[in-house]
Amino acid sequence: MLNQIELRKKATQVRQATALAHPNIAFIKYWGNQDHALRLPVNPSLSMNLGALHTQTTVTFDDSLQHDLLTINQQTYASDEPAYQRVCHHVDIVREWANIATSARIESSSNFPVGSGIASSAAAFAALSVASSAAAGLTLTEAQLSQLARRGSGSASRSVPTGYCEWTLGNDVDSVAVSIAPPDYWDLQDVVVVVSQEHKTVGSTGGHQLADTSSLQAARVVGAESRFNACREALLARDLARMGAIIEEDTVIMHGVMMSSHPPLYYWNAGTMRIIQATQQWRSKGLPVYFTIDAGPNVHLICEAAHVQAVVKAAKQLPEVQDVLVSGPGGPARLI
Ligand code: DP6
Questions:
Q1: Ligand 1 pocket test: which of 114, 257, 294, 298 has the largest number of ligand atoms within 8 Å of its C-beta?
Q2: Domain span at 198
Q3: Which protein residues touch ligand 1 with a CB less than 6 Å away?
Q4: With bands split at pLDDT 50, 70 and 90, how would you rate the model's confidence at 5?
Q5: How many domains would you assign to the chain?
Q6: What's 312's domain CATH number?
């Protein structure tokens, strides 16, 4: 009798874990892969986690489920939708590592708006990796979690460790991100200036696949390592003027590759250009602020905490600006 109860308990076993992760902003950009399936990048990258923003994900492996269920920001996804397939493919990797076949309920929500110019996939796949591996009974090292997150979204590898992170080249096991400085090392702020909330037609995954069609990509990759080293050095020296010049150059070179790909990817709009020019004007008037731009039109203004109010005020005066979000450095992806 007891055995039967035990068996029934086992048959409906539920294992659940919840994790939280921050998105990150890249100072040296990841653009293009050596291996698209494994997301092994062609150049090293460097970033800061954004502590004010987060994604929280709960994964429940439940024997009573027939198939995976996915809810993102209260919206349920059908099995033929790309987001469902991408997330379930990621959970498949975890099932393979844990040697289980159980279906899962995946519930995720973020405190930042979609279309705000924040790459949501980084926080999403970092949180999903931490939650799903724990729920599956795996105990992974930070490096293994970064590796796992990278397979879901390259930039997610950098949302696993704390603070300021570098993601270097390597094979599937060693191309992972590590922290180079904790959040309190330097109070840099990212002022995200939203000039468009439209959904982009070509996302990062498609973009990485086009990188090699640009004749500028080879030159970008050759120069990326020295920009990476110089930016890393400037960051560790807390030298914003030196770092700012490098991050702006790195952004513009990446967008040069995007715009000269076949077909071309024009992520900028008129508002983007307006903010770039305004940043140069603010700087000439003594406000130390620098821009960086991901795969979209919105601009991330990087400054020290002492100048964040002045930057927000200046940005809000521009008619092109629809919204402004502010974040300082953030901690690692973690179970909660
Ligand atoms: C421009 O990590 O979003 O933001 O691996 O296909 O999910 P996938 O791409 P993703 O690419 C990020 C591109 C970037 C630069 C960066 O964050 O380094």
A1: 294
A2: 2-335
A3: 26, 29-31, 39, 45, 119, 121, 153-155, 204-205, 208, 294-295
A4: very low
A5: 1
A6: 3.30.230.10
